[in-house]
Structures are given as C-alpha cells and as structure tokens.
Amino acid sequence: MKSVSLFVSPLESRNLKAVKVILYPESGEQSLIEISEAEAAEFGEANVQLQESCNYEYSIDKGYQLVEIPGVVRRFKNSNSSGGRIAPGIYTGTLSVEVVETATGNICGYIDLEVRSVKSSYRDDYRTMLEDIAERCTDLLMQYTSPVTQYLSQNYSSNSNTLYQQFAFIKSVIDTSEFLEAVHRILNAPVTRWADREGKTNITKGVRINNSIMRQIASGSNRIPLPENHYMHSVLDTVPAKVVVREKHDSPDTVENQFIKHVLSVYRIFCSDVKNKMDSISRECREARQLEERLDNILDHQIFKQISQPATLSLNSPVLQRKEGYREILKSWLMFDLASKLMWHGGDDVYKAGKRDVATLYEYWSFFKLLELFGTIFNFAPVEVESLIESTSDGLGLKLKSGKFFALRGIYDRGSRKLAIKFSYNRTFSGNKEYPSAGSWSKNMRPDYTLTIWPYEFSEAEAESQELILHIHFDAKYKVTGITDLFGVDTSSAEEDLDVEKLDQNKGVYKRADLLKMHAYKDAVRRTVGAYVLYPGTDDYIAKGFHELIPGLGAFPVRPSKANDGTEALKNFVKDVVEHFVNRSSQQERLTYHVYDIYKNRPDFEIREPLPESNEGGRVRPPSETSVLIGYCENSGRYEWIKERGLYNFRMDSDRGSLRLTPEVAGAEYVLIHLRDELKTGYLWRIKDRGPRVFSKLEMAAMGYENPSHEYYLVYTITKTGNKEFDGLVWDIRKLEGYKPGYASSLPFAVTMTELMKVRVN
Predict the structure, then answer these.
(1) pTM of the full predicted structure?
(2) Are 65 and 157 in a shared domain?
(3) What residues make up the domain containing 304?
(4) pLDDT tens for each residue of 672-700
C-alpha cells in the first residue's frame, strides 16, 4: 500500500525532536501524492497533498497525537493506538493539524496537508475567478467616483482576515503570466523623455561653444597652456583641461514609469505587511513571502534605479490608458487600490483559515457572470447594480455572501409587452405556503440564483396571485464535470439505467442528486418553469416538459476562462425564454390562465357519482367545464317533435325568453329539457354539432314545427346521450341558481355539469 511520511515542523519557540507521521490512502493510491518543494512554493501549497472527499489513515510516533478536528481528524478509540483517520470531506486548501504530546497535552508542532480539489484545473480556476470578481468589484467601486487625479495612498486593514482577503484579490491579479508579461513589455520598451545630463569632457575633443562654455574657458580651474601657434594664444594663454557640458539623452524617469515603480513598490510593501501579520507557519505567510521575492526581483532591475518616486497620478495619461504593459499595470493598481477599501465578508467562506473553497468561489463568480449576462439582455438601473456596494463603518462593503439574500430589479421592453425582471441571489422560498401565496408548498427552498419575470403593469404580489409570474432557478455546481454526472449514462434500456443508478447508490455515489434537486425546485416552488445547473463544463442540456421551451430542466456550461466562458448557450436560452413570455399565444400562457381560473376559488362540491369517461374514444371534459343548456318545452306534442327530428330550438330575437348566445351556450355539450309543469326532469340530450345553426320561420314550418311565431330560431342537433351513467337520473331545476319561478321559468340558461349534479334527485 502506498504511504507518505512527513515530519512534524516544531514550533519556533521550542527545540524538539522530529516526530514522524505516516499517511495511508483508503481511496486509491492516486488520492495521495507528494509534490516538489519548487512546485509547492510556486502555488503556496503543502508538499503532501490529499484529495477532497477521500479518506486517509495515519500513524504517528508513540507519545504523540494529532489534535482532533471535528468531522476531519479523528483519533482511533483503541487506547493502544497512536493513529487515527483524516477525512477532509469537501474542504479544499491547506489543512494545518497541530501535534501534541500525549502525556502532557502540550502542543509541540504541526503538519501541513494540502487538500486538492477533484478537478485538475482548480488552481487556474481559483485564480481566474478571484481575478474576475476583483475586476467586477473594481467596476462597481469606480461607479462611485471617477477622479482624474488620485493621491497614491492606501489604507490597509489591520485585521488579518480582511488583510488576507485584500491580498488574495491582488495576488489573483499580479501573480499571473499576464501581469509578468506587462512588466516585461515595460522593461524592454519603456516610455522615455528627453532630459539634460551634465558631464565633464576633455576640451581637446571639441565642444559646441555657448555662453556657459565661454565662461568656463575664461575662468575655469585646472588649466593647461595653449600652444603658441594656437589661434587663441594671443587672447588666452591657458584653458581648463575639462569643461562641463550638457547633453540631451533618453531618460526613463517619466511620470508613467514613476507610477509603475510606485505600484510595484506598494505591492512589495503590502506583501511584506501581510507576511509580518500572518502566522509564520501559515500558508498565507508562505504565499506573501513568495510574491514579495518575485516583486523584489523585478524592482532590482537597473531601469528602476533611474526612476524617482511620484507624488500624484494623472489617470488621463494616454500612455497609462492605452500603451501595452502600462494599461495592464494601471488596471491592476485600480483594482488593488479599490480592493483596499472594500470589505467582503463573503470572502471568509472562500479562503479564511487556509481554505481554498473553489466550489463556494464558483458560486460567487457565477453570480457576477449571470449579472453580466443578464445585463446585456435586461435593463438594470445603475442604482440597482450599485446597491451591491454599501457604506460600512470600516469602508465599503460588498453585500454578496453565501446564504444571504440579494436582488436586483430591471425591465425588458419588447414593445409589444413590457416585462419586470428580478434577479435574486439566495432567495428563500418559504415552505408550507397555501395557494395562492408565493413560495414553496412543501419545505423551504433556496436556489443559488432565481430569474423572475412578470408583466410590468402588475406588482410582483399581484402577478404571483394571478399566475402571471414565472421563476427560473439556477444552481452553481463546480464539482460537476459533465452532463453524465447529472443525468447518468445513457443505457440500452430504462431498467438498465435504473440498475446502474442503484449500484451507484450502494457505492455511496449518487450522481443524479443534483438533477433531483432541480426537480424539487421545479415541483415545490410555485410558478417555477425551469431549474438548471451551472457547471464548469462544455455541453448544455435542456429537457422540455411539454412541447415548448418551458417548463424544463437541464444544465449549462459556465466555466472560468478568459477566452471562452461558455455562457453563449445560456444567453440564448434566456433570450428565448423572454421571447416565449412575450408570445401571448403560447401554451404556457394558456396553462397559467387556466391554472389561475381553476384554483382561484376553493372547490365547494364533490361528484362521486358515475359520469361518462369518454366521448367517441376521446377524453370528456371535466364536469366543471362541461356546459348544459336548461331548455323549456311548452307541451308534450312539441317534445315529440324534438325527439322525432333530433332538433331543439331557441327563439332568436330581443324578446323576453330568447337565448343569449354566451360562450357557455355556444359551446354547450348537453341540453336538459323540462315541460311547462314538469320542473323535475330526466330529459337529458347530447348536442351533436359544435354550436347551433340558424333556421328561418319558413324552414321550421317545413320541418313540421307547429305554428312558428318568430322570424328566426337557433337550432341544436341533439341525440340520445348513449351513456348508461345518465340512465334514470332526474334533476330538480328549481334548485339551480339560474332558475326563475313563474312565467320566467321558461327562460333558457346554461349551467355546468357540476352544478347540475348538485340538484340530482335520484
């Protein structure tokens, strides 16, 4: 079995013997590696490297023990054992574990273990994401003030956590190949200016004569005789051996180069300050020391010895703003200067106590990526974006923190429909909310990000209560490497797919947990039409619930990269969703309307009696949406004509007793006929054709209708219901809400099948 041995680093104040610790991986040899001193120094990491979510056993020299860390470092319970178990879980970064003497409990030293992320690119991703966040925060802070001239002074925090936060920001900027390339461009081709330089030269070499030279020839010291044959011998018999001359030369001592030297010096001093304020054995101290040495090497270049210190910086310098090398250094300084004024408590989640929590950093970084992406589609007011920064007692604070709610509001105006937009971070949808309240009808749900859209003319609360709002949720999952991590591997059959899933569960690996979480958001949070994973991969995946883009589930690639962050698919998706919302004839629009119409009132009646299930092989409408006409027949003779002809007519005019052609009337599926004195009736007929036809008085007479008295009639073609469920049923129409007694009992009206079943007699 592979193992790694390391020796405890004793505390500086004590001179103790070396204590040996041996680590044994439980999860395969590849989960435990040892890197070189040079590589460890380059990345500010420990030599011995574990892997997150893997477990390790350790043994230690007798008489010593590692200090337990709840959930991470645990001693074996066996009293004779001097070993234990290390289970870093999802922790990533430098894990410093103290070593104590078993007998006395005195701390005698420590061991450093680096817990690596499972993703091979986490080092670059970490640096890229920190740099992007620093850039975005700089942009936000610059919106507060854009001075042309700034004094070059910083106010660094005395708090070690905040100081390291600032250091982490600036390290992500200057400890990069881009920064070093910018410095090399300046050193190889610095901006120069013409400057005068004084120097002594031998007068015999010949010099350009001017007033200064003439005065030196006449009165200069250290003189030598002129030859008798010299043309000036008659005027002067001696001249100075050397004269002081001024000459023009290219000088690098420009205001721009002064600024570059100052920036590098400030960075170097800052690194030294961080190093001195951190524990000398900490990873933070090692990182600061390494960066300090790198900056010292740059400042030792000969060119900086010719450059003086500046007092002020003019930000409108064309060289600083445009010339390659200079503009990159200017940008880094602006980020650094403003970062020194920014307090971001959310940064503690990422790198406090030696952590390198890449997953949490990805969550923060994805927020800024979504903000940037949504900003290209929606109109967020500047005051909304600026609200990310708030004044605090110790400067300016970034309000972004994992688990804390924050929201921005905007507008999308398509012309044909104006929409209100809300982009939320860590919005909690409270559980156990009764309809039509916003939130979750089961337990509390808190997606990482939620995009909410509703018509602008409604308030958010009104839109929620009327089903006019939609929510789309996104969760950042850094550790997802591909679509198969979410949706599993395609197999030849559904049964085989479920068998694979069961095996994964038994192994403690459940890849589809994130997919099920998306289903939880979609199904539990009211008015949710989509839930999607953001992950640092390459492929997007969209599963549609019905025919249209929404409702749906899926995943989109959003990866830390300067060249291609993969957000194009997500951007197109959001555009399509908004355009889908603008479409007033979409199935989603119809669905939400009917959901509102159905659920706005509580049900007040149940039908448990048998009713027809199908009509000509198709599903019948629900009773509450099945319309029944209540029609009057004057006598049994007329009713015989109705049965014989399969026709039922209503008067068509403006007189009392004529039929108003409402949607319920026009779309009726049944007609219940009652005679003059027969208000309990079972004469239920099914309407064959969709809607009535118009017959004239002459046409009615030609069909044998007795004494037609009106010019036109609305006529329905009817037939026997053919449903045994209605056989023998009788209804008391006097109990229907639309019934009017006396002469008005002959007036036609429409009811639903549900209303009709309420008045069933038997």
Answers:
(1) 0.76
(2) no
(3) 147-190+254-356
(4) 999 988 899 999 999 988 778 899 999 99
